[in-house]
């Protein structure tokens, strides 16, 4: 069974294509251990709020909260880890992410795109975007990427074709949850603007590209959805999907 990874990627206004979260399963690969998948600490000065992973903080005592860099869980005896990037597949995922956002045929309406090559394996990409007046073009672009790290295109395609509905429905479910939470935030802002005598938020949607961005404040999915648990829930859902694909192949 080849390694399977699920990644959320983002085209950051400041840093370009970036991996925000990647979920992996430890499959006892040669010369690796479970701890090799973890990121105990890493410099965050090369990330901004829009591309930085935010797990809920933990605290042993009041006022002593610390950031969480990894999320780990076990399903049916297998370990699943979600991190900002993959310590053992860093170059691979960076290359896949750059290709996803530079692909001329890439659209952001949740239509799947599949590509394969010997260096990047087999990848299924689903793009989506969220409205944000502080972003370039008033939108933030994301891609969910399922990666099968294999040079055997036939084996990889068999995994995707045998589980096509499961994979597509699973990825779109997470995206739909993100979109619904984001829409709720926008609706609440629109109502607040009306109550305070401001411009109706619908006007912003009617002419999004005619408005000049006076500020470009970086925002991540926690802020865009008002959901501090969004990346935690993403880890759980990704782990479930990868576990199910592994089980289906045995």
Plain-language structure description:
This protein has 250 residues and is α+β, with helices and mostly antiparallel strands. The protein has one domain (4-248). It contains 6 helices and 9 strands. The longest helix has 32 residues, at 164-195. 31% of the residues are buried.
Secondary structure layout plus pairing:
Elements lengths: L3 E9 L3 E10 L32 E2 L5 E2 L4 E5 L2 E6 L6 H13 L6 E9 L3 E11 L7 E10 L4 H10 L1 H32 L5 H6 L14 H5 L4 H19 L2
Antiparallel strand pairs: 1-2, 1-9, 2-6, 3-4, 5-6, 7-8, 8-9
Helix pairs in contact: 3-6
Q: Order of SSEs, N→C?
A: EEEEEEHEEEHHHHH
Annotation, overall tally of beta strands:
9
Strand share of the residues? 25-35%
Q: Would you tell me the overall average pLDDT?
A: 88
N-C termini distance: 9 Å
Number of domains: 1
Q: What class do helices, strands and sheet pairing give?
A: alpha+beta
The tally of helices reads 6
Main pleated-sheet profile: 7 strands, antiparallel
Widest sheet: strand ordering? 5-6-2-1-9-8-7
